[in-house]
Specification:
The chain has nine helices and no strands. The longest helix is centred in the C-terminal third of the chain and has 21 residues. By secondary structure, it is mainly alpha-helical.
């Protein structure tokens, strides 16, 4: 998926997910959020929006946990659980995710014997925060409105993104989700 390589010819294949085509109540927030996260272009735009409002750590945590869930080796699982905890939940965390003290303590204990579900409760809370605090504002933002209505805005945005670890991580996740939804796992 080379959507951020400026040397490739840009072909606008943007299609707005159906959950975002009409404004409905809160019952569709999770569906809208997941459609944004799974969308090749909207996921990148949403991440950039979150960065602009200093909330990117929630999105990055989501992506790291999705990668974490794929790990099957117990030693690698334990090492990666520790890395995620250090990155998001310690006092001097690189990208601190706001979490109540008792939940941090519970999480710290659970990473001693981690499994694929170790971060599920926290992930659920993070998704609820993204839905409640960020999703509606994103959908009302000028950057989103310009992006969905103007092909030139999409081209400039998509071609202008540097290939960072987080961009590659998002593209890999979106590609995986597209393969899963089309039955090519």
């Amino acid at each position: 998926m080379g959507c951020v390589n400026p040397k490739e010819e840009y072909v606008d294949t943007f299609a707005l997910p159906s959950s975002l085509q009409s404004s409905t109540g809160g019952r569709r927030c999770r569906e809208q959020l997941m459609d944004i996260i799974k969308h090749p272009q909207l996921s990148l735009l949403f991440r950039e929006y979150l960065r602009s409002i200093y909330s990117a750590e929630s999105y990055e945590f989501f992506m790291d946990v999705e990668e974490y869930k794929e790990i099957t080796d117990p030693e690698e699982l334990k090492a990666r659980a520790g890395e995620i905890y250090e990155k998001y939940f310690t006092v001097d965390a690189e990208h601190e995710v706001n979490l109540e003290g008792s939940l941090k303590e519970m999480l710290r204990e659970s990473i001693k014997k981690p499994d694929a579900e170790t971060f599920e409760l926290v992930l659920l809370l993070v998704l609820m925060t993204l839905e409640g605090d960020c999703l509606h504002k994103f959908l009302q933002s000028e950057i989103y409105k310009d992006f969905i209505t103007d092909p030139m805005t999409r081209k400039v945005f998509v071609q202008g993104l540097p290939r960072t670890r987080s961009v590659n991580q998002i593209l890999k996740y979106v590609d995986k989700m597209n393969r899963v939804s089309s039955g090519i796992a």
